Amino acid sequence: METSRLQKYANALLTTGVNLQKNQTLVINVDVENQNFALVVTQEAYKLGAKEVVVNWRSTTIGKERLLHAADEVLSNPAPWIPEYYKTYVEAGAAFLSLISANPKALAGVPSERIASQSRHLNKALHFYHEAIMDSTLTWCVASVATLRWAELLGFTGTDEEKIDALWAEIFTLCRIENVSPTEKLAPHLQRLESRTKAMNQHHFQTLHYTCSNGTDLTIDLPKNHVWQGGAEASKSGIIFDANIPTEEVFTAPQYDGVNGIVYSTKPLIYQGNEINDFYFTFENGKIINFDAKVGKEHLKHLIETDEGSAYLGEIALVDHYSPISQSNRIYFETLFDENASCHLAVGAAYPTCLANSDGLSKEELKQEGLNHSLTHVDFMIGHEDMNIEGVTTAGETVTIMSKGKLLI
């Protein structure tokens, strides 16, 4: 892949994504196999005036060996330097860029209870970091890197280099960086998402009702002071950033105890290096009271048993079935892309920014206002070409939000 095209993409992640400021520290979370692109991002960050670029390297293969063989007490007791590391950069006001690639079988063969144990205890140790992300104290962005493994998973052909280049080209297009018309570029697209969020907020919805030919029949109440968001957002310090590239969604938080009915997944969920597929949840007064999955049921069980809040919803997101990612007709096996091809929900924590005047409220006060709290936040896809969504406003008016997969607002 030409360096100039990688530089253009990296620049978008740094300016539109995390919106890196001069003399600000950038933390990059990235797999060791993607060191070449990490170098491009680092170089572009320094061109923009970064104070320092810190790279937090990951190795899935080494991480898998740890999960398979390390002593139980190691998994349940994260090293004290890990929270200290994150604390250093959270307090410094760093921008956080996470670079990911699809690897749906990364932890295949690892006992699900060991994965769950490590995740639960690490989330507890890093709760302050996750809260800083969720309430937009920090500027952050999640984006993707093309790899040979991912390219082959998606069926690209040719030499290894040709496969990777083809995937890069598709990423650039779906992220609206290149090969799209001027009106479909990233900046005007974010403006359209902003317009949609304004329209959703003007309706003052009280309840949403999802129905679909696959059996989904779900009613979701919304908190009285909920706020719809989409595209770019402002950090607590007023910096405008885009947390996901690509992004196609507008989202808000549900009333945590106001979800009733059944919902079926429509795309695979890759959770902690394992696939969960063909699953459903039944809700009563907000809580999951029944579930099943044809693939990965044990991993789904551990997810919703992470803590009390992981059996409730924390996010509802609307995505047009006819978005470019959806119309690619691919399953990307990476939530960043699959969630932007599909309406989705998330079990676990709600974003405090989805509640008006939430700044400074405690967890208990946020819950009193209707927002869920949890150590986890995991999106799963429910969008479908036959999905219909109707909203009932506080004035009692019924509004069709989605018809046959098409967003009408």
Automatic annotation (TrEMBL):
It comes from Veillonella criceti. It comes from the Bacteria. Its EC number is 3.4.11.-. Coiled coil: none annotated. Belongs to the peptidase M29 family. The keyword Metal-binding applies. Its cofactor is Co(2+); Zn(2+); Mg(2+). Keywords: Aminopeptidase, Hydrolase, Metal-binding, Metalloprotease, Protease. This is Aminopeptidase 2. One of its GO terms (molecular function) is metal ion binding. Gene3D superfamilies: Thermophilic metalloprotease (M29) (3.40.1830.10). InterPro entries: M29_Exopeptidase, M29_N-terminal, Peptidase_M29. It holds the Pfam family Peptidase_M29. GO terms for biological process: proteolysis.
